[in-house]
TrEMBL record:
SUPFAM superfamilies: NAD(P)-binding Rossmann-fold domains. Keywords: Metal-binding, NAD, Oxidoreductase, Zinc. It comes from Panagrolaimus davidi. Residues 1-116 form the Alcohol dehydrogenase-like C-terminal domain. This is Alcohol dehydrogenase-like C-terminal domain-containing protein.
């Protein structure tokens, strides 16, 4: 779509994965100077941020690095849905904070067209239900790239 994409995730294996999927830049979320690093890479902060993480800290961090009049979209659903928002920062910098649960028919048509053109490549692993404990451990260790599908017939 002509945008430069910065992916933020945890771990060096995720960098290769994110760049393979089209990210122009990658920042490890464990970086102690995450906010500063993102502002430097994007020359003033990104115009927008889409949070798909199931945690609130990425949204709180985004309020510090998104540029003036930037937009933060929360899509991920954390266990604890409450996060801290500094209203002074939101107002002073004109940041838009919004949530999105699902898209509409037009959005779905666009996604299908992207997929048909080969622009979406999400690794999928299919496992049997008997492997669930092992899969949960991998998720906890942040070792999963893409999506895990549990086949209940196995």
């Amino acid at each position: 779509m002509g945008m430069q994409v910065l992916a933020i995730d945890m771990g060096t294996t995720k960098e290769e994965h994110c760049k393979k999927l089209g990210a122009d830049f990658f920042v490890d979320a464990c970086n102690s100077e995450l906010v500063k690093h993102i502002i430097e890479i994007t020359k003033g902060g990104p115009h927008g941020m889409i949070n798909v993480a199931t945690a609130t800290k990425p949204i709180e961090d985004a309020m510090l690095y998104v540029r003036k009049r930037g937009t933060i979209v929360a899509v991920g659903l954390p266990k604890n849905p409450n996060f801290t928002a500094n209203s002074y920062i939101l107002v002073q910098r004109g940041i838009t904070l919004k949530g999105s649960f699902i898209g509409n028919r037009k959005d779905m048509d666009e996604v299908i067209q992207f997929f048909a053109r080969g622009l979406i490549d999400v690794p999928i692993e299919i496992h049997g239900l008997s492997e669930l404990p092992k899969l949960l451990k991998r998720l906890q260790k942040n070792e999963v790239q893409g999506r895990l599908v549990v086949d209940t017939s196995k």
